[in-house]
Every structure is written in structure tokens, then in C-alpha cells.
Amino acid sequence: MAPKRRRVDESTTSPPPPPLRTAKRQPVVVFAHGAGAPSSSDWMIHWKEMVKEALDAVQVVTFDYPYMSGGKRRAPPKAEKLVDHHLGVVKDAVAKHQGHPLVLMGKSMGSRVSCMVAASEDIVVSAVVCLGYPLKGVNGAVRDETLLQLKAPTMFVQGSKDGLCPLDRLKSTRTKMNCENKLHVVDGGDHSLKIGKRHQESTGVNQHDAEMEAVKAIAHFVQNSIT
């Protein structure tokens, strides 16, 4: 007589299903200020809060460049001289939030230095976000060398009335860039993305709504870059 075959209880012997993996990962954002105002300015705090919420960031790190320290208003040095300090802040943030995607963001001069930092071989950058990139120098020449060296996906958020970054010149530069790049235009916005009252009244554009649209576009770009 053949021995009875034991019934296998599959509910107890089958391996558990693998854990679900979410496509969305919380980034750590290092946000650099512009030439004329520190990280404690109302503008920086406002955008820091908006970005942190929109990106569900684990942290938005802001800091002051050395020339801003001590409360004394001084002229900024050349952008190249700020790279080492900026990179140090980035490395500290990465060490604190290991495994989180890194996003570099900056306002005006801070965005230019962020692009320089992104070229470092010591870090892995998921995305770069430039708020009011200063494409034109003091003498009016186009400063695109740093942008042409970028490899990380890069987004520009520019005011349509920003004299330091004419949109036609930015368009020409973007066609020469080697990385994926996007542009979001704030209609009527100046170098700080602020819209004048006359423009708001004549077009019906609202500052708050325009900022929300910009932040929404940034969040979409960053999440696509991460995933």
C-alpha cells in the first residue's frame, strides 16, 4: 500500500511577497541664495517652504556664503570662489540623508554656483533647479559655459521680464546643452519672479497662483528626474 502523501499547506510554506517599492522618493534639496540677500530673507524662506511641501522633501537645506556672514553687506566674489563652500554644504547634506536623491536649487547667483557644484565628481545629482538664472554678465555677454557642461537634468524658472536672462538667449543656450532641460516661464515676472501690479491688473495674473504653478512644474520635473 502506497504511503499517504502529506498535504502541503501553501499558505504557510510559500515565501512572503516582496515589499512594495514606491516610485516616489523624498529628495534632499540644497537651496542657495542670490548675490544680494541671505538665506534668512523673506523671499528665500517663502520659496523654501513652498518647495519643501511640493516636493515632499526630507529637508530643504539653506545656508549663507562666507561673504554674507557677520551681518555685513559686501559685494560677492566671483562665482567660482564660492564652489568649495557650497560643495561642502552639499556633502554634509548627503551624508545626513544617505539614500535620498539630491536636488540642487538656487536663486540667481546661487543657481549659477549650483550648476558649477553639479559638475563635481564627488556627488550624484538627480536634478538642478535654477530660479532666475543670470545668463547675462555685467558686460552683457552670455555666460553659458557652465550650462553646457551640465549632465544632470536641469530646469529653469524664469520671469518673462527678467533682464538678466532674455528668453530668446536662453532658448539658444538650451539647444546647445547636453543634458535634459526644461523651462517654466512666469509671465510678467522679473529677476525675482515677482509680477508688477500693472501686469497683474492688465492680464489677471495673480502672484500667488503664478508661484503655485511654478512650484507645481518644479515638483513634476524633479519627480520625473528621480524616477
From TrEMBL:
Residue ranges crossing the lipid bilayer per the database entry: none
KANL3/Tex30 alpha/beta hydrolase-like domain ranges (all copies): 27-222
Positions of region (Disordered): 1-24
Pfam name, any one: Abhydrolase_11
Gene3D superfamilies reported for this sequence: alpha/beta hydrolase
SUPFAM superfamilies the UniProt entry points to: alpha/beta-Hydrolases
Highest taxon above the source species: Eukaryota
Protein's recorded name: KANL3/Tex30 alpha/beta hydrolase-like domain-containing protein
Source species: Eragrostis curvula
